[in-house]
Amino acid sequence: MTDLLPHEVDVAIVGAGSAGCVLAAKLSAAEGRSVALLESGPGYSSVAGCPPELLDPGRLPVGPGAPFVRRYRGELRPSQVTEIVRGRALGGSGAVNGCYFIRGTSADFEGWPQELWSFSQVLPYFRALENDQDFGGEFHGSSGPIPVRRDSGYRLTPLSSEFYTACLDAGFVDEPDKNAPAATAGVGPVPSNIGDGRRISTAIGYLLPVLHRPNLAVNSNTTVTRVLFDADRAIGIDAVANGIARRILAGRIVLCAGAIETAALLMRSGIGDPEQLRSVGVPVVTALPGVGAGFFDHPEVGIPYRPTRVGAVDVPALQVVLNTDDVEFRPYTAPFAELVPGSGDVVQRLGVVLMRPRSRGSVRLQDSDPRTDVSVDYRYLEGESDRAAMHDAVLTGRRLLDDLIRRGVVDAVSPDYSDARFLEHLGTSQHLGGTCRMGRSAADGAVVDARCQVFGVTGLSVVDASIIPSPLRRGPHATIVMMAERAAELIVQEQF
Known about the structure:
Elements: E1 8-14, H1 18-27, E2 35-38, H2 52-55, E3 69-77, E4 80-87, H3 114-117, H4 119-129, E5 130-132, E6 146-148, H5 158-169, E7 186-189, E8 194-195, E9 198-199, H6 202-207, E10 216-219, E11 222-230, E12 233-241, E13 244-255, H7 258-268, E14 271-272, H8 274-279, E15 286-287, E16 293-295, E17 299-307, E18 320-324, E19 327-331, E20 348-354, E21 361-364, E22 375-377, H9 384-406, E23 410-412, H10 419-424, E24 426-428, E25 460-462, H11 477-495
Parallel strand pairs: 1-2, 1-13, 2-10, 3-22, 5-6, 13-25, 14-15
Antiparallel strand pairs: 3-4, 7-18, 8-9, 11-12, 12-13, 16-21, 17-20, 17-23, 17-24, 18-19, 19-20, 21-22
Helix pairs in contact: 1-11, 4-11, 5-9
């Protein structure tokens, strides 16, 4: 890794998260192609030099004071705020999350451009990225950079084991391989990106092995402030590297900064809703009203409980999940910073999650200063269908928790799960997306085409969760890595 920014490169990648690390590795594979990867957070150049918190799969290094995240204020519902936490280090949010690595389902891709992103077309890229430790055959990879394994048997905590059994006893289907193409609903172990006891982010799996390449420059502590244009062509970026303003010219710019920062960077660069841009004093380069619109996440209600049996502590935050139609139930093994009233005990939660919410929010600039946070409005449960679905899902979650109470593995924290009460526990899964969605036309609100190129300009692509057209029925991490594998080929075909 270098601390010297090149003046000109073939490809500049903004954001060294789950997608950016993959693209840097893939696009720098050709010796004659120069690539710069720019990350606003801290970096490291070896596994030995990686902060141990980012390697420990049993830790979520996102608490107060953590140097590996950026925090935003978000409004879930009117007057109900939350803290949004996004990874800010090599590996991005994939370096600080719970190692959940379930693929999007085949149904999830039906709304993507079918000529390039049907499930049959993306499956080879899912296979290419993984080294599955439990399943083989035509649907799984065995030589990819991301190890995938599942906890079972003695490795399950008492809570995870009893939850699994309770779901089967309740008549839910056993789903031992949630990454199988036919996986739709049922209870099963969570595929995790863990190898040799370590969290394997794309920084560890993809980027570190290729840092020796002379045509690859990786710069941490570098914040990109805007994309530069010559008429309608992107020609470079302005950045601040370790406090020093720099300018880099590039033949192709790829934004991988995540659903908030990618949308904000486009808007600060003059691409977005003209009315909104003018309101914050940004000259319009290209009118794309879809930038920042269509924002989604998975709304989650956490039903608190207190475990009565202590199992292994060095396990992922989530070992098993139950999927029913468009709801996911998550018996978290990790404690949350929520106190039982009057006791001071930290509790755990059964997450009840709407995976296909209809409500959509927005990400907007508050002003043109890149140092100022953006406005994030979730508009959770705005529609009656979402409120009804969450109500029913919480009742199902409560029944599952009652069964766990009878089995003696948990104690209830609160018996009140009226609608008013459960809304107090409404939160977010931190699965942000949709702010620069992929589609066929800017007239339909899309921001990038099927090849991940921004409409209305040349030389500019977006590859991260912001382009996902609609909420996935599973967590997004594995799908984002697949997208970067696929997009690397598309970018090479188009540009080089």
